[in-house]
Amino acid sequence: MLRQTIRLLTTPLLRGRERAPFLLLVAMTACGTLGMHIIIPALPATARAMNISVGTVQLTITLYLVGLAGGQLLYGPVSDRFGRRPVLLMGLSLFTLASTVTAAAPNATVLIGARILQSIGGCAGLVLGRAAVRDGATAERAIGQLAMLTLVMSMVPAIAPAIGGYLTAFVNWRASYILLAVIGAATLAAALLIMPETHRPRGAPGRSLWIGYVRLLGSRAFCGYAVGGACSTTAFYGFMSASPFIFENQLHRPTQEIGLYYLVLMGGVALGSFGANRLSRLVPMRRGLWIANLVTIAGAALFMLADLTNSLSVATVVGPVTLFMIGAGMASPFALAGSVSVNPQAIGAASGMYGFFQMSYGMLCTIVVEVWHPGAVYPVAAVLLGSALLGQAAMSLAGRRR
After folding, report:
1. Cα gap 72→121, rounded to integer Å
2. CB neighbours of 38 closer than 8 A, spacing ≥ 6?
3. What's the first-to-final CA gap in the chain, in angstroms?
4. Of 387, 381, 389, 362, the residue nearest 63 (C-alpha)
5. CATH for 7-195+209-400, among 3.30.1120.10, 3.30.499.10, 1.20.1250.20, 1.10.620.20?
6. Cα separation of 369 and 276, whole Å?
7. Which of these, 375, 365, 353, lies nearest to 328 by C-alpha position?
8. Could you tell me which of 156, 142, 166, 146 has the C-alpha nearest to residue 187?
């Protein structure tokens, strides 16, 4: 029985593949981000249904980011040691189970606790999807492939809030969690069937699992790429956390319409990722990062200007933030490829640490927005602009120290 279980974890039922299918990479990477974005339009309805405050319901986003951040620290080195496939299967199983619990949660305590477990399971796909791409490609080729993965992946959180908005408006707030459970189960089944092992474990002793992290943290190049990538790509989580209340309470837009705004915003990420795929063939990594960050700075500055001049509208919110998202979509594959190429012996650890930086910074941004002035615009604008400037400085350091 034990031997059969080990064989199931290490060998796909349908053999013959050496690389993970692209659609499976998209699906397993999508689980973690889908769990973040699909419930955003349901936050006000969840607060009303459970009779809890805005701050409490926003914990379902903030603590989800905590799980995404911490889980990636674990999955990276463990997958370097034991392989990508068995670790991925365990993560997807946890995601599916926790999604089922959230769908039936009787109170806020159970909902928030299950969300943490859901995020820990979902982040397995985030780490291992990136690692699987880099396992079979050089750093230069990985930029283009990661850009295409980001391009396709950006459409998932783009469509997700729109779906979540309609599910909330025409069914109820639990419908989004039910859909997450179904998607998790389908992805787990597909991984069991066709996910190959893309990394040959090196058999290092258990205590060496974390040595890769120590070496990465001592690398200025890695820290520059990771910090810069986090600032440029996850600062918008602060906006996403506050935006339902901005659109609904300040701009008086209906719930189902809010999801369509996110479709436009994430379309910006897709456009930026497509641009990065083209740009990577024309300019070196440092120049590509510089261009991407200029775009994020411009978008954040325009958003800040709209707030300072009291000219807020759907257009003056969605337009500048979409420009910010275009820059984020451009920066992401460059920063990620640079991070996971610093040490080819610790690709999984680099992917996990990069994800930890991302989600930790995204969590910090949501906390700042929630604590500073919940529902207000100026904290969000300040977070976006400050993050864009910090990201430019960090990535400049990485470029010089490559």
Report:
1. 10
2. 160, 161, 163, 164, 176, 179, 180
3. 49
4. 362
5. 1.20.1250.20
6. 29
7. 365
8. 156
pLDDT, tens digit, 9 for 90 and up, residues 220-262: 888 888 888 888 888 888 888 788 777 877 777 877 677 678 7
0.85 exceeded by pTM: no
Q: How many Å apart are CA 272 and CA 233, to the nearest integer?
A: 11
Q: What is the mean pLDDT of the chain?
A: 80
Q: Which of 9, 133, 131, 122 lies closest to 70 in space, CA to CA?
A: 122
Give the model confidence (pLDDT) of 70-105 as tens digits: 887 788 777 777 778 888 899 999 999 999 999 999
Angle at 200 between CA 199 and CA 203, to 5 degrees: 130
Domain ranges of the chain: 7-195+209-400
Whole-angstrom Cα distance, residue 360 to residue 358?
6
So what's the pLDDT on residue 236?
83
Angle at 402 between CA 387 and CA 136, to 5 degrees: 95
Q: Please, which residues have CB within 8 angstroms of residue 364's CB and are 6 or more apart in sequence?
A: none
In this prediction, residue 187 has a pLDDT band, given cuts at 50, 70 and 90, of very high
Name the amino acid, one letter, at 379: P
Sign of CA dihedral 157, 155, 180, 229: negative
Question: How distant, in Å, are the alpha carbons of 335, 336, 391, 397 from that of 331?
Answer: 6, 8, 10, 15
- Cβ of 380: how many Cβ atoms within 10 Å? 30
